[in-house]
Amino acid sequence: MSTAPAAVSAGRASESAPRPPAAVIARRWVARLTMPVLLLLPAMVIIVGLIGYPLVRTVYLSFTDTGLGELIYGGSTWVGLDNFKEVFSDEHLRASLVNTVVFGTLCVIGTMVFGFATALLLNQRLRGNWFFAIAVLLPWAVPAIAASAIFKWLFDSRYGFVNWALVELGFSGFQDYAWFAGRVSAYVAIFITVVWQSFPFVALSLLAGLQTIPKETLHAAAVDGAGPWNRFRLVTLPLLRPIVAVLVVFSTIWDFKIFDQIYVMAAGVPDRAADTAAVAAYREGFALSHYGLGSAVAVVLFLILLVFSLLYVRLIGREGSA
Amino acid sequence: MKWLMKRGWMYGAMALISAFALFPVYWVVITSLKPRSEIYTRTPDLWPSDPQWSQYPRVLGEGHVGRALLNSLIVASGTMVICLIVGALAAYALARWRVRITHILLMLVLMTQMFPLVVLVIPLFVTMRKAGLLGTYWSLIITYLAFCVPLAIWVMRGFIMSIPEELEYAARIDGATRFGAMVRVVLPLAAPGLATTAVLAFLEGWKEFLLALTFINSEDRKTVPLVLQSFVGRGDTDWGAVMATSVLYTLPVALVFVLARKHLMTARTAGGVKG
């Protein structure tokens, strides 16, 4: 791994003796940088133009009272922190932030626990493991909107499978139970959808980690008298810490910015009580034309996620996987 | 007997988790094969008594689903092609010129994966409106590049770095230009990386919902997630049609996942991207 830039290493040694004039050095630098800059240019234009600029613009909008007219024709007025004050005082918007944090955290915990259990089982290499591995992979392949539609059907109040099964099992209270008529019950259904979709990734990532743990280490622990639980707690878990950390941060980011499932499944919840911040920001902007206020919600969500993103970048950087 | 005590519960757990993972998929498929009278019933059958395919020609013909599949295919393919080209060039540059700024660029690339799209969507909407692109395929392809290109750079850079630079020197001694060596020597060797990136970029375009919801305003440009959402959002949801559409929408993705799962796993862990 040489660290020297390899740009024009070929013809260089021959002309080293006398110090070349400044113009030549400059020309050489230009020649050396032309190609990488040209190669990077399209990507940079895309990243700066489609991520950098919109981000700055949204932050600006969040300090203005932009409505539909101002958005299109310009002329919005600066309102300072008013939008942010409203985000935290408006009942619906504040609730959407609380929803995001509470529901997101629960989803992360559910996904991690369930994913870990699945990974440990997969690592046992029981008979029929190949079938198990493919079965576990499948939910990951289902696009979010399709999964939302599927679970909305499973949880349908009149003809849904879940209510039918619960009634058959003796919980007759679930006859025609309307899961999407209340915030908590809607979140139960959406929680199951989210965990169903995200546990495969966590399980398969953890499985990859489990397979790197040498069998000898676990054997040694067993010889020293450690039971299965202690082997897991004292050997497996510490060795997997880096992967677990990355997965937790990563699931947090994913579950906090969740949009598709909420937009489709929580649409019918009265007073939109089950909206998360991403959906609330979107609706505030595009449904109610409060683009300034919507931007403020988005910026708050962005700041929350930024903390986790920085954490993630640090974890990745420490592992040196770049 | 001892074996059963020790391992039995594991098999039980494995069966339960498999059922949890598979049952929803199974339920979609059989619902799509049931006649109307068996869908709208209080006592659903676990197996359709008279499976029939008629839902599929019906949704493909009437419900804009055929059109939507075509739209999704066009948008996802367009995203994939442009993303591969732009991403390969940038990845090559970042893999071969290791200057200090590379590190910063890579961090930027990683950060873009963390963005909630909702932060970007309002200005993007204005830009697309000003450019007169609202409601076109291009509005989607261009904006999808914003999050596909960073991912492509990240994945392909790893692959390109694993290819020894000496091979390029050899090609250049034989008279190839640096660009020629890249195109004819490095990229063919990085083919697995290109393929992985292609799949990932295609899937991003195939699955994306939020931007499509914002930019697409006409029935004949709707992508599949939009059609599904409008089906589900109605009061009198035609669940047979929804389930048939979901199957058609998911099938290509599921095939790719089962075939290419190893590659996707490594790429996704490295790129830090999920679903």
Summarize the structure.
Chain A has 322 residues and is mostly helical.
Sum up the structure in keywords:
heterodimer; A: 322 residues; mainly alpha; MetI-like fold; 72% helix; flat; disordered N terminus; B: 275 residues; 2 domains; 14 helices; globular; disordered C terminus
What is this structure's SSE topology?
The complex is a heterodimer of chains A (322) and B (275).
Chain A (H helix, E strand, L loop, with lengths): L21 H40 L6 H6 L8 H8 L1 H33 L5 H13 L2 H11 L6 H8 L14 H28 L4 H9 L4 H29 L3 H6 L11 H11 L3 H29 L3
Helix pairs in contact in A: 3-13, 4-8, 4-10, 4-12, 5-8, 6-8, 8-10, 9-10, 10-13, 12-13
Chain B lengths: L1 H32 L2 H4 L15 H7 L3 H32 L3 H13 L8 H10 L6 H25 L3 H9 L4 H12 L1 H17 L2 H6 L8 H10 L5 H21 L1 H11 L4
Helix pairs in contact in B: 1-13, 3-13, 4-7, 4-10, 5-7, 7-10, 8-9, 12-13
Report the count of strand segments of chain B.
0
- Computed over alpha carbons, the radius of gyration of chain A is 27 Å
Oligomeric category: heterodimer
Structural class of chain A: mainly alpha
The termini of chain A sit apart by 13 Å
What is the number of helical segments of chain B per DSSP (H or I, 4+ residues)? 14
Largest sheet of chain B: none
Count of all domains of chain B: 2
What percent of residues of chain A are in strands?
under 5%
Number of strands of chain A: 0
For the sheet with most strands of chain A, the description reads:
none
By CATH, the topology of one domain in chain A is MetI-like fold
Distance N terminus to C terminus of chain B?
43 Å
What letter string, H or E per element, gives the SSE order of chain A?
Answer: HHHHHHHHHHHHH
Summing up helix and strand content along with how strands pair, one would put the structural category of chain B as mainly alpha
The pLDDT mean of chain A sits at 86
CATH superfamily of the largest domain in chain B: MetI-like
The CATH first-level class of one domain in chain A comes to: Mainly Alpha
Tell me roughly what share of residues is in helical segments of chain B.
over 70%
